[in-house]
Amino acid sequence: MDYAHKLFGQITEPDLFIWNTMIRGSAQSSKPIKSTCLYKQMIEKDIQPDNYTYPFVLKACTKLSWIQMGNQIHGKVVKICLESDTFVRNTLIHLNAKCGDLKVARVLFEEWGNRDVVAYSALTAGYARRGELGIARKLFDEMPTRDMVSWNVMITGYVKCGNMESARKLFDEVPQRDVVTWNAMVAGYVLAKSYEKAFEMFEEMRIAGEQPDEVTMLSLLSACTDSGSLDIGERIHRSMMEMGSRNLSVLLGNALVDMYAKCGYIGKAIEVFRGMREKDSSTWNSIIGGLAIHGFAKESIDLFEEMQREKTQPDEITFIGVLVAFSHGGMTEKGRKYFELMRIQYGIEPNLRHYGCMVDMLGRAGLLEEAFEFAELMEVVPNPIIWRTLLAACRIHGNAELGKRANERLLALRHDQSGDYVLLSNIYASEGQWEGAQNVRKLMEDRGVKKETGCTLIETDNKELMHFLFDSKSTTTSRSHNL
């Protein structure tokens, strides 16, 4: 389109066909705003738009969610009696159904006797997008004919509302499926955290001969990341290589780096990272954060410095990874320096997560008084996580007095979490202050707070989860495992 615009600029008197061609191409491009600019130029030059011009401009307005401009164009369409044109009316229904007034879309639809599948699909999608699935399904059932778009609209509507049972039923009934149909189901199962079903759907897709696209792979990698399914993630990666995706897009590369990093396969995450031709801030954030969380503090900081040399602008997420690296690496002085660097050099105001990283860093280093003072002087109100982090540091370093003060701040925010009481009780017990431990237990009972039941999860070879529950009175500390 950039080259097309240059050529268009060389034409002294473009005719209506050329104007429409440029407006249509721009509306379909990644820069639909150029379509509206061309339309304005056309009006300024007193060139009268026709029934082909308006649908293209209205599509651009829909993409941009420019309902006000869309309404102005609607007014002009009515004035020149083009509202009855099939293409114009369909785009007006689509505009209002997607980002405007559903009532207007409904009036346009009902006042028109010659309704086609495009009009039905546009209005159905509008109701489905707003969660009014009952009306959407009624329109879908009324359709005289249904094309693939109408089936996909309804399936996607159910998926977005989390009604996977109805989505699957329609999916099984659809006479013909395309990649959009399959992707809707895969993404739906991922959103519903039914990861096994998402992977099964992918296998069905491959068996049916449908070629997965980038959207499919992004959904599946998201499922692998959330579920910690490294083995499946590797299989997905191999499938991408087999399909010729050796030159990864930024989005796919980022998803792979994030998946490998969060699953603990740092070597592979770095390999994918180094193999990417293009990187954005999210790419750097994933690898820096992944290294930091898994204890590779020096490597994480080295990559951050490389990011700076590459002139990639860090954001607030970058600095969370950097501060975690300093915290885990015990580099308190550098942590303080980079916390200030974030504000002074990059103009990023710290949020609760940054403050939490600093409290954790100071707490790990045993600088409990400084950590406590830092938490009290924060520019935002500390949340329970901040005080719980400090309380945990007091437990590690055996400071019962400061632990009590942190616990008081914590219980002032919420006093229904049994873990907060247990942690303080354990601090007293580790110091041999049994009376203090007993007093905490009594306070817990007086407030009617019950110790939560522990639960350990073990993933067996056949992927079934076995639950080992411990009685609430048990003194065993339970953890979650993913073996």
Automatic annotation (TrEMBL):
PPR repeats lie at residues 15-49, 116-146, 147-177, 178-212, 213-247, 280-314. Keywords: Repeat. It comes from the Eukaryota. InterPro entries: E_motif (IPR046848), PPR_At4g14850-like_plant (IPR046960), PPR_rpt (IPR002885), TPR-like_helical_dom_sf (IPR011990). Coiled coil: none annotated. This is Pentacotripeptide-repeat region of PRORP domain-containing protein. It comes from Papaver somniferum (Opium poppy). It holds the Pfam family PPR_2. One of its GO terms (biological process) is RNA modification. One of its GO terms (molecular function) is RNA binding. The lineage of its organism: Eukaryota, Viridiplantae, Streptophyta, Embryophyta, Tracheophyta.
